[in-house]
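Both lines are given unchanged directly below:

***
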Amino acid sequence: MTLEKLKQEVLDEAEKQARAITAETEREKEKILGEARTKAKAVVEENRRHGEARAKEMAVELKASALLQAKRIESEAKEEAVESVLHETKRELEEIAKSGHYEKIFDSLAAQAIRALGEKEFLLKANAKDKKLAAKHGRVGEAIGTIGGVIAAKADGSIQINNTFEALLEENEEKLKQKAFEHLFGRQGESAQTHAKRAGGTKEKSKASRTAKKTKRK
C-alpha cells in the first residue's frame, strides 16, 4: 500500500468518525432541546393553572369585598334615613313649642315633674320664654337652654326630674329609631340598632329619665 493511499484511508476514517460524532452530537442536542421544550411547556402549563386559580381566588375576594362594601353602604344609608326621622321629630318639637296648645303641654310636663319629685320645696327650670309658664307652678330658677319643657329640682339640686323635650326625646330615642326603621324598611331584616352598630356604632347614651336622678352638689 502506497503512502498516498494510506493517507487517504486515514482521512476517510477520520471523516467518518467526525460525521458519527456530529450526528451523535445533533441527536444529543435534539434530546436536550426536546427535554427543555417539555419542561418549559410543563412550567408554562403549571403557571397557567396557578394563574387561573389565583385569578379565581382574586375574583372571589373582590366579590366578597364588594358585597361587604355594598352592605356597609346600605346600612349607613338606612341609618342616615332613620337619623333624619329623629331630626324631623326634633324640628316638630320646636314647632310645637311655638304653637298655641304648647301651654297645656308645658303645664302637663310641669305637673308630672313636680309630682314625681315629691318635694314641697322645689325649683323649676325652663328656657327664658317659658319662665312665666313655669311661675304658675312654683319658684323659678335661672333660664336653661332647651326647646321646651321643664326641670323640677330639689332646692339643694341633689335630685331633679328632667321633663324637657330633649330629655324626653333622648329617653325614647331607641324606640323612635325602631319604629322609624320598621316604617321605612319593614319589620323583616335587621333592627335599627343593629344597623347603627354596623354603620359606625351608636353612642352609648345615658337615659334621661323622668324619674328621680341624683346629681352632685357643686
